[in-house]
Design goal:
The chain is mainly α. It is built from six helices and two strands. The relative contact order is 0.07.
Length: 163
């Protein structure tokens, strides 16, 4: 099978033409670099490629093309501290802490201490949240204190956050 950007020899083209007896065959179609592909063909290729693993290089190319398509162009003026979503870089630190092994251990210890039971309504066997009694953001020194944790079901935790 010829990859995009590769070209067949004249001899190979003749063999394919003879084998097809003039019929159109996707194998006989030659793609060249920069060749525009119809929407119908792109859909067919997409359907064939669905579920197949992609190389790191392919994933990077897709990521770049999608981000450019969404934004329309490279926009360094709207990235980082120049973005209207910027909040001083705190999100990345919070995400790192919440995904750390230390945080997962803290969460497990809180659940074990409370026997995997919501401390507000007494339910078990539901989705549980390890809630910080003194807020995660305002008390960074208490983030991993087991006594600062409380096991709540999602419903009770959402009610508590709304208050």
């Amino acid at each position: 099978m010829v990859k995009l950007g590769e070209h067949r020899t004249e001899e190979t083209r003749k063999k394919i033409a003879l084998a097809n007896h003039g019929k159109h065959n996707s194998l006989a179609t030659e793609f060249k670099v920069g060749h525009e592909v119809s929407l119908e063909t792109r859909k067919k290729i997409s359907k064939i490629m669905k579920g197949k693993p992609k190389s790191l290089e392919q994933r990077e190319k897709i990521s770049k093309s999608v981000s450019k398509a969404l934004i329309g162009r490279d926009t360094p003026w709207a990235q980082g501290s120049n973005s209207h979503f910027w909040r001083g870089g705190i999100t990345q630190i919070n995400i790192k802490v919440r995904k750390s092994a230390k945080y997962r251990i803290w969460r497990s210890k809180v659940f074990e201490r409370d026997l995997y039971i919501c401390q507000k309504c007494g339910k078990s066997g539901v989705y549980l949240v390890a809630h910080h009694i003194k807020s995660f953001a305002n008390y960074p020194d208490l983030r991993f204190e087991i006594n600062n944790g409380l096991t709540l079901c999602k419903k009770c935790h959402d009610k508590l956050r709304d208050e």
